[in-house]
Write a structure and sequence with these properties.
23% of the residues lie in helices and 32% in strands. The chain is an alpha+beta fold and 265 residues long. The strands form 2 sheets. Strands 4-3-2-1-6-7-8-9-5 form a 9-stranded antiparallel β-sheet, covered by helices on one side. Strands 13-12-11-10-14-15 form a 6-stranded antiparallel β-sheet, covered by helices on one side.
Length: 265
């Protein structure tokens, strides 16, 4: 009798579990997840990111992208990430149907609005909140629609509003072998270095004499040929420590100033 009683209790537990699971399934299919319109990466012409402090506007101009209103050239790798994510963005699931937006940084004070345009106008717009622990997905909400949704990936790192990070930080770009002369002005003394020979056999000279540090000079020219910066400043009022003119098919001039807290200007 005791064994039969245990079987009845076990059956009731299984029945309750099945009812709960079915109920959970029903609750998950009782809502519809919004879907964005199909958007091709190549069709995107403008992206605007805005929070309660600032606005960052990116616009396609020819084959490049610029940052408005200054017209700074945008970094191509950052733009490619933005375009890929903007075109493939898909809502995964409903996280909350309540308007508890502050919990997800989706309230008016913390949310970041992302607007994506093609030639016809606005195609996608959403509010971006915080990224979930581990960066697996991010929280968003759709304007004029209540609820919090999840999308795959760390969107905060992709839709980054840091202007310096979004700018093209390439300062110089040229073929090192194209430079045949180098004029250096330092402490009111001007030196003219010339490259003698071709390829691996070439040597930098000063006043017709081969320089012992010719290999080091070649390395410096190589570094300057792909020079990138870590940030931008508006102006520089000091006199340069050294001015370098790299002379080849074109002339490149670099002014190097005294070292500051964040590095050399």
């Amino acid at each position: 009798m005791k064994i039969r009683k245990e079987y009845i209790i076990l059956s009731l537990i299984i029945l309750v579990s099945v009812i709960y699971i079915v109920g959970q399934k029903d609750s998950k299919i009782n809502y519809e997840v919004p879907r964005f319109e199909v958007l091709e990466k190549a069709d995107i012409q403008k992206i605007i990111m805005k929070n309660n402090l600032t606005t960052l506007e990116l616009k396609k101009e020819g084959d490049s992208w610029i940052i408005l209103p200054e017209g700074y050239k945008a970094d191509s790798s950052q733009i490619n990430r933005l375009l890929s994510e903007s075109a493939s963005l898909t809502i995964m699931d409903l996280i909350s149907d309540r308007e508890n937006y502050d919990r997800y940084n989706l309230d008016e004070e913390n949310a970041q609005t992302v607007s994506i345009f093609d030639k016809e106008g606005l195609r996608r717009e959403f509010l971006l909140g915080k990224t979930a622990s581990g960066g697996v997905y991010s929280y968003i909400r759709i304007k004029e629609t209540s609820g919090v949704y999840s999308v795959s990936g760390d969107l905060k790192s992709i839709f980054d509003m840091n202007r310096d990070k979004m700018r093209d930080n390439q300062v110089l770009s040229f073929a090192p072998g194209s430079i045949k002369e180098m004029e250096i002005l330092k402490d009111k003394t001007r030196s003219l270095l010339k490259l003698k020979g071709e390829g691996e056999e070439s040597v930098w000279t000063l006043d017709g004499n081969d320089l012992d540090n010719s290999t080091e000079i070649k390395n410096r020219v190589e570094t300057l040929s792909r020079l990138k910066c870590t940030g931008f400043i508006e102006s520089q009022n000091m006199d340069p420590l050294v001015t370098i003119r790299l002379i080849g098919e074109e002339i490149y001039t670099v002014d190097l100033f005294e070292k500051q807290e964040k590095g050399y200007t």
